[in-house]
Write a structure and sequence with these properties.
Blueprint: H1 26-33, H2 46-53, H3 55-58, E1 62-64, E2 67-70, E3 73-77, H4 98-106, H5 116-125
Helix pairs in contact: 4-5
The chain binds iron/sulfur cluster and zinc ion.
Length: about 140
């Protein structure tokens, strides 16, 4: 059980879009919850938070583990977020290539040893790209 007693987000409702007339969309989620991502910056519980909520599996929308999620996909993350905070990787035939790294990102899991360098190249290629909605995970930059 995740103990949130000392979590920076304790009693902070803005981590998820509230019930309203407007159904959540990636844009709305970013507007409403994006600023709350900074709460995760100094949180030591990121990996446990993701393991507990399992946002990809349950189609989570909101802030969890230093990432902003929409329907189980990462739509933004702190620059300090690291793939080691995600669930363990599945080994695939494509491992050891850019396609293998992409498959890990799509499954929202860690990069295996053979794919880590391809993932690092990918991150370098998008480092100046502003955060986008949907698709690949991109950085919001460090919001601290
Ligand atoms: S990682 Fe973020 S959402 Fe999870 S407990 Fe820490 S501050 Fe809260
Ligand atoms: Zn791999």
């Amino acid at each position: 059980m995740l103990d949130l007693t000392n979590a920076p987000c304790r009693d902070r409702p803005e981590l998820a879009p509230g019930a309203g007339d407007e159904p959540p969309t990636p844009r709305l989620t970013r507007e409403k919850c994006g600023p709350a991502l900074r709460l995760c910056a100094a949180c030591p519980l990121r990996a446990q938070c993701i393991a507990h909520v399992r946002p990809h599996k349950c189609g989570f929308t909101g802030v969890c583990g230093g990432r902003l999620w929409f329907d189980g996909q990462i739509i933004g993350q702190l620059a300090t977020a690291h793939h080691s905070e995600l669930p363990a990787p599945v080994n695939r035939k494509a491992c050891g290539s850019a396609a293998g790294a992409r498959a890990h990102r799509r499954a929202v899991e860690q990069q295996c040893d053979n794919c880590a360098s391809f993932h690092a190249r990918y991150l370098a290629s998008i480092s100046d790209t502003p955060a986008l909605i949907g698709g690949e995970q991109l950085s919001f930059g460090d919001l601290t």
